[in-house]
Amino acid sequence: MPERADREGIDDVVARMARREAAANFRLSTVAEALRLRPEPCPSCRADGWDGHARDWAEELPAVELLPAGEPGGAGPPVLVLLSCELLAPRSLLLVSVAIRRFPAVAGARFETRAVSYARRIGARGDERSVLQAVRRVDRAERWTDGFRAGTATTAGAARSAGDPERGHGPGVALTVPTSTRLRTQDPYGWPGHRSSLAAHFLTPHPRGRLLTRLNDRSLAARLSAARAALTP
Ligand SMILES: [Zn+2]
Questions:
Q1: Which of 2, 42, 44, 145 could make an SS bond with 83 (beta carbons 3.0 to 4.6 A apart)?
Q2: Residue 166 domain-assigned (yes or no)
Q3: What residues make up the domain containing 121?
Q4: Is residue 14 part of a domain?
Q5: CB–CB of 86/182 below 8 Å?
Q6: Does the pTM of the predicted model rise above 0.90?
Q7: Ligand 1 mean position to 158 CA, how many Å?
Q8: What is the rounded average pLDDT of the residues 73-97?
């Protein structure tokens, strides 16, 4: 028996993910809790570890320490895992800072970007059915943030909703951060490279095929609509 979410139209799933992201982007906060970033090898382009451009980018982020690839981290500030080839908008880290500060129960979790979450779930498959299934799973992995938006989150609730049936519960669970991603260019200081790095995709820095393009269009439309609503008096 499929879950109710599996019968929901994929456009509605993507729109919910977009509203989550927009809500995170419009948070009014200047909190910058200490956070450690760890790159994960990208299964699509094989990028691995930090390069000079990534270090330049990360050094501009507040309260961030870079972990080498493969470094578990041990005791210390929470770890956010990202693909070695992706760039994030700095504001996307704000939600993680707020979570760490308000909900000690999730501070022991490992955070991961939406692109990491999707890459793990899609694996080497690329057919439409697999893409749609992976999107639904990423949506479920982001639900821990929904209480933030509604203003109803509690420590216990955040920890409980962080449980992912596919990945287990409790300490060490990976919490997906609802954030679009950009492909880090090899030519960050030339205009073509800079321009291409501005183009975000809601799910992956390597969108291939019409389905991922269509879903991104849906995501963008929903984010714009949510942003308009947030900015309208
Ligand atoms: Zn890549």
A1: 42
A2: yes
A3: 27-206
A4: no
A5: yes
A6: no
A7: 30
A8: 87
